[in-house]
Amino acid sequence: MEVNISKENQVVTAALVGRLDTPASQEIAPRIESLKNDAAGTIVLDCSQLNYISSSGLRIFLSLRKAASEKGGKVIVRNISNDIRSVFMMTGFLNLFEIQ
Amino acid sequence: MKNIETNKKSFLNRSAWAGLLLVLVAALTLEATSLIQYYYSKKGLVAEATKRAETQLEATRNRVMDVINQTESAVRNSIWIAQWCLDVPDSLSRVCQRIVEGNPVVVGSTVALMPGYSRRYPLYAPYVCQQADTIAIKTLATSEYDYPSQEWFVKPLETDRGYWSEPYVDEGGGEILMTTYSEPIKDKHGRQSAVITGDISLEWLADLTGHIDIYPNAICLMTSRTGQLMMNPAQDLALLQSVAERVEMFRSSEEFKQMQQAMLGGEYGNTVLSAGNVKWFTFYAPVERTGWSMCIVIPEDDIFGSFRKTDRNVKLLQVLGLLMLILILQALARSQIRFNRLNERREKMENELHIASEIQMSMVPKVFPPFPERHDLDIAADIVPAKEVGGDLYDYFIRDEKLFFCLGDVSGKGIPASLVMAVTRSMFRTISAHEDSPSAILSNLNNSLADMNETDMFVTFFLGVLNLSDGHLTYCNAGHNPPMILTDSILNLPVEANLPLGVLKGMDFVEQEIQLHYDDALFLYTDGLSEAENNAHEQFGVYRIEAALHGRKNAFDHLKNMQKHVNDFVGSAPQSDDLTMLFLHYLGDALAQEEHRITLDNKVSQISRLAGFMEEICESSGIGSSLAMSLNLAIEEAVTNVILYAYPNGTHGTVVITATKKDGSLEFIISDSGVPFDPTAAPEPDINASVQERPIGGLGIHLVRTIMDNVSYEYKNGRNILTLTKNI
Fold first, then answer.
1. Which domains does chain B have, with CATH numbers?
2. Which residues of A fall within a CB distance of 8 Å from B696?
3. Class for domain A2-99, per CATH?
4. Phi then psi dihedrals of residue B142, to 5 deg
5. Do residue B632 and residue A52 have CB atoms under 8 angstroms apart?
6. Does this model's pTM top 0.90?
7. Which whole-number Å values give the CA distances from B200 to A18, A45, B104, in the listed order?
């Protein structure tokens, strides 16, 4: 699992590559946590190369979303696959995120 | 066997020696006691003989002295009258007559004048004697007799005192033994002038001498002062001769001569004579004044004869006793040998029975686990024969993914039962080789057994056929006690009470079926278990069996555990019946065609392995990637839940995931031995809540529920078991 974070024009983009399963979630949690510093702005989670997500991953997404919500920022989930989209659907996450 | 032989021989030798020694000791003891007895008895008998002889001697002496005294008195008392009459010789016969008439013992008397004392008669000796009933007067003054030279006349005058003559046989008066007492007579001037005498017959001595009745062959002898034997010629001739012969025999003995000397010396005493190969006990005593001596001779045999006879009888009895002892010992030894032979035979028989038992035991499968390559089955069985060989049996084998198993109990015990058992077992194998239906197998078995059953033996029998691929069990019971089935609870397996095998030909056996699930088990047993009795004659009983079956162990441990329970219950009471058990633990997945399993440690990192496992399953099941991802997600959520929460922090635990492909569905079973937790009981999260209201957790189980078609939880045998099904 890789997380590639880049910053461009006040927009922080985190590209998630690989499977975001439980161990991977634990692994990347500190990196995502650091994104909360930019929660007032726009955070883009690039899921074009994310091929799996478990509830632990969803939890990370949610905690980031909560931080953005507190700070007036927003989290954009971009390029999710259909499989992950269905997971988002099952969990009601489609309503929580701006999906592009 | 060689050893036994040598032992037997050495035992025989030992017992023979012991017997010989015993007889020897008994003989020695008997001999010693009889010797002591002999010595004291002999001593007593000699003392008795001495006493009797001395009494006899005393009596005889008294008798003799009585006569002697009477005679001496009679003669002496007449001396003074005779003195008066010396001058008138014709009156002397009157004196003599007075003596004879006044004293019955005196048979004759004379007053003989010294030759030349009377001027008228140169010799004068009137003799008065008893003749028949009258008194006769004779004269001894004849020229043939010449009385002045006779001993009775000479001796008193020489010694000037009374004198007893040597006994002599009176030839004139009837051949009787006589003796004469004579006294000298002095005249008024003190000159020796005459001799006065009294004759006595010694006829009465015959009663006192010769044979006397103190012992059968005892004799009494009397000798005169010259050692002459005093015998009355008037006595019985044969008797006289026998006595004389005996005395003649004695004369050769040295001891007799010494005794004679002592007797002549007037001594008292006793001695033992050896003459004519016989010992003679002799006792002697003097008769005062007369110079005579008496002796009593008793042959040894008279004294010891009866005793010797008794002694001989005692010895005979002793010998008989010893013979009896030998015979008894021999009989004992023989019975010992017989006993040994019986023992040997019994040992041989027991040995053969033991071999038979071993053969019998080798017929039933005894290697556990019998199918080590199979994970879906754990089976163990055991027979504990009561004694010798028994009639219990069990058997099992796998054919075409089906387990054929049976357990039975032949009525009766011993070799006949075990033969029927062997036949039943072999027929079970033969028929089951091509027949799948339990009722068909039993019908076949029953017909064959009934055909050959001439001994009216029957077999209670339980037969099961377990389809290992799907847990479907078909079974048939022929009069056997119902097995126990262990699922969530422990129950008797419902069985039809069919007749036992071998009773009636053509019987139909009702077949039954039941579905076994993963972890279900069957326990089959014979009544040797349920009816095992303790010393108080209580039976082990079904409820104790049930109690011992609680908790899951492997099959072999279950049997050991049961055996321990029975042993503890029975204690020292003897086992009366064969005890046979079979424990079957089904570990296959119900309806499983194909089973996949993975075991993970309770670490989050293990989830990576689960992904590979899921990929494999989905691939082999032909499941598309989307569904595969969903299934993976659902299983991961369930497994993560276990890994994170089932075991207390820092403790190690595992989670087992099995996946089973069925017709139209995939079933996952996630089990762990952690704290009981039912994830299905968790409330549904509100997925429509706003960002702020959404809780961070609770999504996992929701995903599981959403993805899977069926979710069920149970806590069984210490395990959380979560079953997830997805229709495909």
1. 78-201 (3.30.450.20), 364-586 (3.60.40.10), 594-727 (3.30.565.10)
2. 59, 62-63
3. alpha beta
4. -120, 160
5. yes
6. no
7. 177, 186, 9
